[in-house]
C-alpha cells in the first residue's frame, strides 16, 4: 500500500494529472500544479459537488467570496489566537515536528530524533500560527497585514445577511462555496493529501437553534451518500467522531468522514468534516463588526442567531481519494494492465474515439462521432499508435469507454464500445451512441 502513492505520483505526472510545482527550478515543497487531465478531473468533481449541493436543491445557494478579507474577520473567527500548531525542533539537525502529531515522547531525554538520531535534543513546544500573512498596499507595516484565508467558511458567514436578504431566503437554508484556502502547514506531504494551498468545497446550513441535531444528522447522511455516488468503495469510508480534545474551538459536535488512505501507522485519515458550529461564528462577527446578524422568524415571532451546520470537504483530497480508490493493476495473458476505475460522472474523459487504422475514411468517421458527442460528454479523439497502446493510455487516465471505428463500420455503421473495467466489447450503431453512453453512465456499477 505504501508505494501506491509513489506509483500514483509517477502516473499523475506521466499522464498529465499533477506535476510538482515550479519543477524546472527544482520544485517547491508540497506545492503541485494540475495538468490537463487533473484539471478535467477536478472540474468534474467540483461540478458534481455543486450539482448535488446547490443545483438540485432549492434551499442552498452559491457564493464566491474574496480570498483576502478584512483582518478583523480572523480575530472574530478565532483564527488569530486558536489556529495554531505546537512545534518542536531538534536542536541538532533543526528538523521540525508537530508535537501533537509525533509518535515518540519528545520529553524523554533518551528519545532519538527520527531525522539525525541524537537523543534528548528537542525544544519545548512553541505555538505556530498556520495563516499566511501578506501586506495590502505599498506599505509593509502591521496596519497593512492581511491574511490568505485558511478556510472558505468565513466568507459565507460575513455575507449571511447579504445573501439572505438579496435572495429572500428563509431558514433553514444553506450557502455553498468552492474556493482556495491556504495554510502554512508544518507537516505537509503524502502527495496532495496535505498541502499549503488547496481547494475546499464548503456548505454552511443555517438553522433554528433547536433544530441543529436534526440537520446535523441529515447532512451527515447526505455527505456520505455523495462519496458513494462518485463510486468510492463503501468499506474504505467510515465515520470518526471528534472527542473533546479534538473538537475545533468553534464546534459543539464534529464527525469526520475518513477514508482508508493507507499511509501512516493508522491508514484512516480525514476526507471531510461535518461540524455543528452552533451560533459561534455569527455571534462573534456580530460582536466584532458591531452589526446585528439576528434572524427574525416570522412563524414563531422570535429573533435569534441561527446555528450553523457545516459540511467541509477538501477538493484536492477528494481527488486523491478517487485516484487511490480507482487504481488497479492486473495481469492479462502475462501483460500488466494499469487502470484508474473512475466513475464516469467524474472521469476526465468519458469516451475516447479511435479509428482502427488511418485509412478507408475511418479517421473522418471517428472525427464526426467525436464532434457529435462533444456537446454531451468529455470526449477525446486519438489516432496515434497501435490500438493496444491507445487503449492502454486511456486505461491509465481512467476513460470508462473507448469507441473504435473499424472495417465493419464501413459496412453497417456500427462501432465497438470497449468497457474499461471488464474489457468487454459491444457493437453499437453510430446513431445510437449518444443514447447508449447515457444508459451506460446511468447504470454504471449497478450490474
Ligand atoms: N471550515 C472548516 C474547515 O476548514 P477542516 O477540517 O480544517 O475544516 C476541511 O478542513 C477539509 O479541508 C478537510 O477535511 C480536508 O479535506 C481539507 N483540508 C484541510 N487542510 C488541508 C490541507 N492542508 N491540504 C489539503 N486539504 C486540506
Question: Key terms for this structure?
Answer:
BirA Bifunctional Protein, domain 2, single chain, Rossmann fold, binds glycyl-adenosine-5'-phosphate, 2 domains, five-stranded mixed beta sheet
What does this structure look like?
By secondary structure, the protein is an alpha+beta fold. It contains 13 helices and 23 strands. A seven-stranded mixed β-sheet has the order 3-9-10-16-13-12-11, sandwiched between helices. A five-stranded mixed β-sheet has the order 20-19-21-22-23, with helices on both faces. Strands 5-4-6 form a three-stranded antiparallel β-sheet. The protein is globular. The two termini are 28 Å apart. The site of glycyl-adenosine-5'-phosphate (GAP) has 19 residues, from strand 10, strand 13, strand 16 and helix 9.
Show the helix and strand layout.
Blueprint: H1 2-14, E1 18-20, E2 32-34, H2 36-55, E3 60-62, H3 71-77, H4 79-82, E4 84-89, E5 96-98, E6 126-129, E7 133-135, E8 145-147, H5 153-157, H6 160-166, E9 173-182, E10 197-207, H7 212-229, E11 237-241, E12 253-260, E13 268-276, H8 280-289, E14 295-297, E15 302-304, E16 307-314, H9 315-326, E17 327-332, E18 335-340, E19 351-355, H10 362-373, E20 379-381, H11 387-396, E21 401-405, H12 407-412, E22 414-419, E23 425-429, H13 433-442
Parallel strand pairs: 3-9, 19-20, 19-21
Antiparallel strand pairs: 1-2, 4-5, 4-6, 7-8, 9-10, 10-16, 11-12, 12-13, 13-16, 14-15, 17-18, 21-22, 22-23
Helix pairs in contact: 2-9, 3-8
Glycyl-adenosine-5'-phosphate is lined by residues 151, 153, 183, 185, 194-195, 198, 200, 202, 270-273, 310, 312-314, 316-317.
Amino acid at each position: 500500500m505504501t508505494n501506491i502513492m509513489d506509483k500514483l505520483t509517477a502516473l499523475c505526472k506521466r499522464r498529465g494529472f499533477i506535476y510538482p510545482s515550479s519543477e524546472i527550478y527544482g520544485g517547491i515543497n508540497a506545492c503541485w500544479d494540475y495538468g490537463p487531465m487533473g484539471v478535467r478531473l477536478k472540474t468534474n468533481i467540483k461540478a458534481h459537488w455543486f450539482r448535488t449541493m446547490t443545483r438540485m436543491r432549492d434551499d442552498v445557494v452559491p457564493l464566491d467570496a474574496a480570498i483576502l478579507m478584512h483582518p478583523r474577520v480572523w480575530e472574530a473567527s478565532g483564527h488569530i489566537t486558536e489556529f495554531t500548531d505546537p512545534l518542536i525542533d531538534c536542536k541538532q539537525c533543526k528538523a521540525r515536528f508537530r508535537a501533537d502529531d509525533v509518535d515518540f515522547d519528545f520529553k524523554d531525554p533518551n528519545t532519538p530524533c527520527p531525522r539525525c538520531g541524537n537523543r534528548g535534543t528537542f525544544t519545548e513546544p512553541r505555538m505556530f500560527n498556520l495563516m499566511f500573512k501578506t501586506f495590502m498596499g505599498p506599505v509593509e507595516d502591521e496596519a497593512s497585514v492581511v491574511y490568505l484565508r485558511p478556510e472558505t467558511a468565513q466568507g459565507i458567514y460575513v455575507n449571511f445577511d447579504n445573501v439572505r436578504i438579496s435572495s429572500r431566503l428563509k431558514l433553514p437554508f444553506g450557502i455553498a462555496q468552492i474556493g482556495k484556502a491556504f495554510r502554512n502547514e508544518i507537516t505537509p506531504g503524502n502527495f496532495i493529501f496535505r498541502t499549503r494551498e488547496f481547494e475546499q468545497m464548503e456548505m454552511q446550513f443555517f438553522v433554528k437553534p433547536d433544530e441543529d441535531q436534526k440537520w446535523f444528522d441529515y447532512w451527515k447522511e447526505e455527505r456520505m451518500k455523495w462519496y458513494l455516488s462518485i463510486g468510492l468503495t463503501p468499506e474504505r469510508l467510515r465515520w470518526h467522531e471528534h472527542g473533546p480534545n479534538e473538537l475545533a474551538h468553534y464546534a459543539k459536535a464534529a464527525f469526520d468522514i475518513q477514508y482508508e488512505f493507507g499511509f501512516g501507522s493508522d491508514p484512516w485519515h480525514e476526507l471531510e468534516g461535518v461540524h455543528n458550529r452552533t451560533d459561534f461564528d455569527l455571534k462573534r462577527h456580530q460582536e466584532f463588526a458591531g452589526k446585528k446578524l439576528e434572524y427574525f422568524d416570522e412563524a414563531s415571532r422570535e429573533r435569534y442567531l441561527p446555528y450553523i451546520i457545516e459540511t467541509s470537504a477538501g477538493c484536492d483530497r477528494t481527488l486523491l481519494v478517487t485516484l487511490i480508490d480507482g487504481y488497479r493493476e492486473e495481469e492479462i495473458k502475462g501483460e500488466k494492465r494499469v487502470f484508474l476505475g473512475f466513475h464516469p460522472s467524474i472521469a476526465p474523459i468519458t469516451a475516447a474515439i479511435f479509428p482502427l487504422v488511418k485509412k478507408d475514411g475511418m479517421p473522418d468517421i471517428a472525427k464526426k462521432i467525436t464532434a457529435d458527442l462533444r456537446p454531451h460528454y468529455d470526449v477525446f479523439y486519438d489516432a496515434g499508435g497501435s490500438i493496444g497502446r491507445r487503449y492502454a493510455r486511456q486505461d491509465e487516465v481512467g476513460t470508462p469507454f473507448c469507441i473504435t471505428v473499424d472495417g465493419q463500420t464501413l459496412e453497417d455503421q456500427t462501432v465497438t464500445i470497449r468497457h474499461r473495467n471488464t474489457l468487454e466489447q459491444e457493437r453499437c450503431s453510430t446513431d445510437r451512441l449518444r443514447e447508449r453512453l447515457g444508459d451506460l453512465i446511468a447504470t454504471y456499477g449497478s450490474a
